[in-house]
TrEMBL record:
Native organism: Plutella xylostella (Diamondback moth)
Gene3D superfamilies referenced in this protein's UniProt entry, alphabetically: Regulator of chromosome condensation 1/beta-lactamase-inhibitor protein II
Pfam family, one: RCC1
Organism taxonomic ancestry: Eukaryota, Metazoa, Ecdysozoa, Arthropoda, Hexapoda
The name this protein goes by in its record: RCC1 domain-containing protein 1
InterPro entries: RCC1/BLIP-II, RCC1_domain-containing, Reg_chr_condens
RCC repeats: 201-252, 253-317
Signal peptide: none
Amino acid sequence: MYVLSGSNVHGQWPCAELFISKFQDITLEGYNSSFKLKEAQLLCPNWSYNIFIFKDTFYLAGAWCGSDSALIEVKLPDQLKCYKHTSLILTGNDLKLYLINKISYDIWLLNIEDVATWNWQYKKINTSEDIFTNEQESPCKKPKTKTVIVKAVPTPYSFILLTSDGSIYDALTKIDTSHCIGRVCDVDYGYEHGILLTDKGHIYTWGNGKRCQLGHGDLITLEEPTELEALSGIRVIKIKTGGWHSLALSESGDLYAWGWNDTGQLGIRRGDEKKEGLNSYPVPTLVELYDDEENVIETNVKDIACGSRHSAIVLEDNTVWTTGINKYGQLGFDPEEIAKLDSFKKSFVCEFDASLQCGHWSTCVLSKDVVQKRIKIESFGWEVGQ
């Protein structure tokens, strides 16, 4: 089940509205008779398109080949016909699609303008030298390593890879994580910064910090993942990044936020006066929730998600709370009535065990069975972030 609010201007979802200003169940069967949304898995939401998998086939939904509301079946390279879709990852950004073989470390790139011709470009990660090579081996050949790629995160210009042994690749190069405490089990990336999580609950960030998004109390750029000292004594179980902000969820159900807060995307209120928050927070800050009567909400947070400049969370009672910019209705409220929120406000009450996934300008509430199926597809039997 998918419940959506926010932008649909390119027809990424089979829904007539361009702007979905209140959460609604996307119940239509799909874009055509053969595609059924209720059975499809959302793999990657983007600004102008979504990536789905349905019955062992990848689909692109949205703006393609000069038209909106298009549904296109992805044509795989001939070399991948011997593989099941569960051993492949498809992700992308506004420039390229990235098709990744989890087992053999083969990667195919496709420029967005080449979707009509499906002119895939082949690359390969050479794990011994930690760089891509153009030498193509048989993709069906048994891999020399027991490790597999378990997650691919698109960045504005490339992608980040996570392997089952905790290695991180930033497109062409391997990132040094030997100093990290524990094995890296999850990774996410915003517009200019990355964040990773280890199985010991430690968080590390790297990249551009000019909007405080690294959480180290300064504006410097870091080439190497560096531990967030403010959270070093707290076991974190989930991480998410927005455009220039990040969220972290502790094992006790507490929410921490840091980075740019120009539209209230952190949901942090300043002091006891409950005033509008600061424009940015340079270190992770505990976020408190309040109801409409200004009473503190004691219910724990169980899931988190970030859009470009908004954030969403789910509490253990399956209520959804949102904050930040609401230009396209991504917070679940009419944008003509609420242009933005400076703190989290309850926007939806679920009747099912809920989880979250945000696009750049949208918020999607997923049922638990959808999430578990997606994890199985994406992680090749190895669950990330746990």
